[in-house]
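FORM 7B: Structural annotation worksheet

SECTION A. Query
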Amino acid sequence: MSGVDVRFVAGLDDHSTFPDIVRDAGLDQRFGVIQDTYVPGATDGMVFDEPLWNALVEFVLGSASDGVLTVCPSLDRMKEQAWDRFLAAWLAQAPEDRDPPDALFLRRADKLVLSLITDPWYAIGGPPLYHDSYAYSLFSSADLGPQVQAHLRQANLGGQWALSEEVVRVSRVRPGAQERLQKAFSLDWLKPRPKA
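SECTION B. Predicted structure
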């Protein structure tokens, strides 16, 4: 497969999945790898680039040789399973039936140190930055952006991906700002208040 566009994003925004398990572990540094799913000439308009996902898994596994990797196929159910067990079942599927799991969790000494979260924006369109893509978010306690980009450049020796040089910086709406705006533009303050 050739011609797969890959873009990068750094920071948390209001569109990226940030699971409680990741937040509670203090993994607040996000570096996202966005794989466009539209590839001209593909029979199915939406393409999952398995080699790209495998390269990201290799990065995660290489981040802690003494770490334990688990998989959460669905964040809705939050049932983790051992990496080896998941991989055996996943590889038994036909390649066209494979989709990436919702999450990978890497732990060292029972402490979550790195997570890879998948947002499948190909299925629902998505906001402009993520429209028709798989967005893979790596969460850690330190910025891993340069290391992830270097790893993907090295894995791209065949030129199968068009890797962007740019990293888009994003941020969330300041906590509470959205609520303050809603309050400021509502007419609730005109309603009579109950007497104490």
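SECTION C. Observations
The CA atoms of residues 26 and 94 lie 37 Å apart. Helices lie at 20-24, 50-62, 83-91, 145-155, 177-184.

SECTION D. Sign-off
Analyst initials: ____
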